[in-house]
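Re: [ENG-882] Designed sequences occasionally contain unexpected residues at chain ends

Forwarding the minimal case from QA. Structure tokens:
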């Protein structure tokens, strides 16, 4: 076991995400629209759309929502969306990564400046924060799905890179490319996966004072509340 301190950011993110399930639906809708605009409405020939539809199924997006967004993408009036990643330094040297998807890059850039003006921190140059993170697939499994030893063998055979746990969940770590494949293999064995997503996992964490920790959480939550922002990762210990 690697110890759950390495995955502390997932727990904070998960708590916020549970309270904002609508943001997940919104992000997937944007991905569906963008992928259809770029590659057409047939998932057989459009890999990006196929991945977006897999995410929609995992998030339990209603089928009518999916169909509506595919049709919406065909309209000339519908804007396309761009994926953006911002890197920030928070308080006490903590690194923060913000994933956003927007139809107005200028608005998003302005929102980032407003966030740091109000809550502190600075916008960093690309690569200066992300080098300390790895993008990985993370599958969350409830502890009612089996004992640790048995699940460890199952996830290893399914192609996972790592296996960890916290108080409530088992966490299965995969490469980005194998996230959905590993999830499907586990489900074929009767294991229910409560969530599967791409995460930025910190290679090292930064310990900071209580004051800096409080200020960072205020900055992170301000960023998460922005309309264009999908998810925020950090390496605060």
């Amino acid at each position: 076991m690697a110890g759950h301190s390495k995955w502390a950011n997932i727990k904070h993110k998960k708590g916020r995400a549970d309270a904002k399930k609508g943001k997940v639906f919104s992000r997937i809708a944007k991905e569906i629209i963008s992928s259809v605009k770029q590659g057409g409405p047939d998932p057989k020939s459009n890999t990006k759309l196929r991945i977006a539809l897999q995410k929609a199924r995992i998030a339990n997006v209603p089928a009518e929502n999916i169909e509506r967004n595919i049709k919406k993408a065909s309209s000339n009036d519908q804007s396309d969306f761009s994926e953006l990643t911002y890197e920030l330094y928070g308080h006490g040297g903590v690194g923060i990564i913000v994933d956003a998807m927007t139809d107005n890059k200028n608005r998003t850039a302005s929102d980032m400046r407003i966030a740091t003006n109000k809550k502190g921190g600075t916008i960093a140059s690309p690569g200066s924060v992300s080098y300390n993170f790895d993008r990985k697939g993370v599958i969350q499994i409830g502890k009612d799905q089996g004992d640790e030893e048995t699940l460890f063998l199952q996830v290893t055979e399914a192609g996972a890179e790592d296996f960890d746990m916290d108080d409530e969940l088992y966490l299965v770590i995969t490469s980005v490319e194998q996230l959905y494949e590993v999830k499907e293999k586990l489900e074929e064995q009767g294991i229910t996966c409560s969530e599967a997503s791409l995460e930025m996992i910190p290679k090292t964490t930064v310990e900071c004072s209580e004051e800096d920790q409080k200020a960072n959480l205020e900055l992170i939550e301000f960023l998460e509340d922005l309309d264009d922002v999908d998810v925020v990762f950090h390496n605060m210990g």
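QA comment: On inspection the terminal residues look reasonable. The mean pLDDT is 87. Proposing we downgrade this to a documentation issue.
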